[in-house]
Amino acid sequence: MDTSAPLLGEPLPVELMNTVWADRDGVYDALIDAAGTRAWLQAVAPRTDLMTPDDVAALPSSALEQLGGRLTDLRDALRRLAAEATEDTRTAATTGAGDLQGAVAQLNRTAGDTPHWSALSWTSGRQPSRHLRAEGEAAAAAISAIADEAITLFSQDTRHQLRACLGPGCVLYFLKNHPRREWCSAGCGNRARSARHYQRHRRATAEPPPDEYTAHHQPPGQTSITPTTQGTGRPHPASEHGRPPHPADDPRSTPSRPTALGWAPLPPGAARRERSVLVVP
Question: In CATH, what is the architecture of 12-201?
Answer without folding.
Answer: Orthogonal Bundle (1.10)
